[in-house]
Design brief:
Helices cover 31% and strands 23% of the residues. By secondary structure, the protein is α+β, with helices and mostly antiparallel strands. The chain has a single domain, classed as Roll (Nuclear Transport Factor 2, Chain: A), CATH 3.10.450.40. Strands 1-2-3-4 form a four-stranded antiparallel beta sheet. The longest helix is centred in the N-terminal third of the chain and has 16 residues. It is globular.
Length: 137
């Protein structure tokens, strides 16, 4: 299977007329996956009209029941990525607070992007900023 940019990315930034390419660079695919994961993790479930399961539980419900909610939120991140970002395989999500900050919402997301016979390992760092958005880098 050849890994591509998302349909909306291809519509937004089409190739010049008459130009066709069968393969995109690893960097383009990585940036596409990163952008999709960023949008996915910053959408609250119930806010997508076409799929009410798209996104994550609301951040206030997670923060108000910490530390008990961290394991469930970690699992929700993994499930959402597995369901809505098919280019990322073998997804692993780990709660990774800095130092003794067990109440910090910081995660490591890792997996593989498989393109034909090539398998590229990827890792994202994710943390909740002061406004409750998940920053993915």
């Amino acid at each position: 299977m050849t890994v591509q940019r998302t349909l909306l990315e291809r519509l937004r930034d089409p190739a010049p007329a008459g130009y066709r390419r069968s393969h995109v660079s690893t960097t383009e695919v990585f940036e596409s996956v990163l952008g999709n994961v960023q949008r996915l993790l910053n959408t609250c479930q119930g806010n997508c009209l076409t799929d009410p399961e798209y996104g994550l539980p609301h951040m206030t419900s997670v923060r108000s029941t910490m530390p008990d909610s961290v394991a469930g939120f970690t699992a929700a991140i993994r499930r959402s990525i597995e369901r809505y970002e098919p280019r990322l395989n073998n997804v692993r999500v780990r709660h990774a607070p800095h130092g003794d900050g067990g109440l910090e919402l910081r995660f490591e997301i890792s997996g593989f992007i498989t393109d034909e016979d090539e398998r590229t390992s990827v890792r994202f760092e994710t943390y909740a900023d002061d406004e409750g958005r998940l920053v993915v880098r």
